Amino acid sequence: MDARGGNSARLELKHLRCLVAIVDTGSFTDAALDLGVSQAAVSRTLIALERILGVRLLHRTSRTVEPTTAGVQVLVRARLLLAGADELVTEATTGHSRLHIGHAWSAFGRHTTEFQRRWHHAHPETELRLIRHNSSTGGLAEGLCDLAVIRGALDLKPWSHALVGHEQRYLALATDDPWARRRSIRFDEVATRTLALDRRTGSTALNLWPEDERPAVEHTHDIDDWLAAIASGRCVGVTPQATAAQYRRDGIAYRPLRDAPPVPVHLVWRRQDPHPATHAAVALAIDLYHENRRAHTDEQR
């Protein structure tokens, strides 16, 4: 660590580990055993830390060791920093043994569970983690995931990407809405209602309608805010089938939209240093979406 205190000494993780060990074990002797160093080394390290921070951290008697008020505050931060450092080491040493797939609203919708099951069966050596992050890239730009499921209108030029399938659009509405008694809704009818719209992470934009036939809009901030506005009856929402599959809520009904353009579903990843399992994840997602399309075609025959 490069953080510095009031003098030229450098604050290092070993200083924080020493403080935590002393408090957790209750003595300098036990802390030394825990850290695998001498008791004198523990004393020197603590003194160095107190000099770096310019505060006294422990009350020491012949029988007890208790943190001071400043010591309690430093302990809280020290534990967080050490946990973060340990997590960093774990991530680095496990390398590519985990695959993180991010999404803003829904992962693979109705295919999510099957994706997880097939992945675990085919790639047991690579742990799969699905991460929901409220950003337009589902956490990819923030460095939180290796791939992201993207349904919104995102500029894909900076990224590598693959189209894995399409999803039908649905109308989300309150269960006591008169339209909820219908089996499906025409897309052009939505223009007569107030539309809940998430400009940041949603997959619906006003340019889906002619400029002079666009619905009134109430802007929302995330999926929970969107669902709450719809359940209240103030608005309706247009959303991919994945939302209808993953967000079954009391007070919310979903109905298919007729004549609505489908939603493209992309997997997106960084061009540089892609995860080794990227293409396996893309292939599995494509298989699942194609299987669903074939099944739907067979049902219509």
Walk me through what this model shows.
With 301 residues, this protein is of the alpha/beta class. The chain has 3 domains: 13-94, Arc Repressor Mutant, subunit A (Orthogonal Bundle), CATH 1.10.10; 98-166 and 264-300, 3-Layer(aba) Sandwich (D-Maltodextrin-Binding Protein, domain 2), CATH 3.40.190; 169-261, Periplasmic binding protein-like II (D-Maltodextrin-Binding Protein, domain 2). Helix content is 37%, strand content 21%. It contains 8 helices and 13 strands. Strands 4-3-5-13-6 form a 5-stranded mixed beta sheet, with helices on one face. The protein has a 4-stranded mixed beta sheet with strand order 8-12-7-11. Helix 1 (13-25) crosses helix 2, helix 1 crosses helix 4 (69-94) and helix 5 (112-122) packs across helix 8 (278-300). The longest helix is centred in the N-terminal third of the chain and has 26 residues, at 69-94.
Rg, Cα atoms, Å: 27 Å
Count up the helices: 8
N-to-C series of helices and strands: HHHEEHEHEEEEEEEHEHEEH
Strand content: 15-25%
Strand order of the largest sheet: 4-3-5-13-6
> How far is the first residue's CA from the last residue's CA?
66 Å
Write the layout of secondary structure elements.
Elements: H1 13-25, H2 28-35, H3 39-53, E1 58-60, E2 65-67, H4 69-94, E3 98-103, H5 112-122, E4 127-132, E5 147-150, E6 160-167, E7 169-174, E8 185-186, E9 194-197, E10 216-219, H6 223-231, E11 237-240, H7 241-246, E12 252-258, E13 263-269, H8 278-300
Parallel strand pairs: 3-4, 3-5, 8-12, 9-10
Antiparallel strand pairs: 1-2, 5-13, 6-13, 7-11, 7-12
Helix pairs in contact: 1-2, 1-3, 1-4, 2-3, 5-8
